[in-house]
Amino acid sequence: METIKSLSRLKVLMNELSKNLNCGESISLKLSSPQLLTQLPQMAMSVNLSFIDAEEVKDGFIVTLENRFGEKCLSGD
C-alpha cells in the first residue's frame, strides 16, 4: 500500500479514484500525517467519494473511501 505523503499527491489520487472506482467499490489508503487526514473528508466529497473510516496506525492513518455517488454510480456502470 502506497503511503501518501503530500497534499498534491492526495489531490491527484482522489481525482483518479473518482474516475476509476466502480460504483460501490471501496479502497484503503495510508496517509502519513494528521494534516492530510483533516483535508481528506472535504476532498472526498468534492469528487463524490464517501469517507468511510480512519484508523490510526504506528506511522500514519489507514483510511477507507467508497464510491457511492461518483460518475459510475450516476451512469449505472
Q: For the largest beta sheet, what order do the strands appear in spatially? A: 1-2-4-3
Catalogue the unreliable spans.
Answer: none
Number of helical segments?
Answer: 3
- The percent of residues in helical segments reads 40-55%
Counted beta strands: 4
Quick overview:
This protein is α+β, with helices and mostly antiparallel strands.
3D structure, described in words:
- The protein has 77 residues and is an alpha+beta fold.
- 40% of the residues lie in helices and 30% in strands.
- It contains three helices and four strands; from the N terminus they run βαβαββα.
- It has helices at residues 7-20, 34-46, 71-74; strands spanning 3-4, 26-31, 50-57, 60-66.
- Strands 1-2-4-3 form a four-stranded mixed beta sheet.
- It is elongated.
- The chain starts with a strand and ends with a helix.
- The model has no long low-confidence stretch (mean pLDDT 91).
Topology, pairings included?
Layout (H helix, E strand, L loop, with lengths): L2 E2 L2 H14 L5 E6 L2 H13 L3 E8 L2 E7 L4 H4 L3
Helix pairs in contact: 1-2
Task: Spell out the key features of this protein.
77 residues; alpha+beta; 3 helices; 4 strands
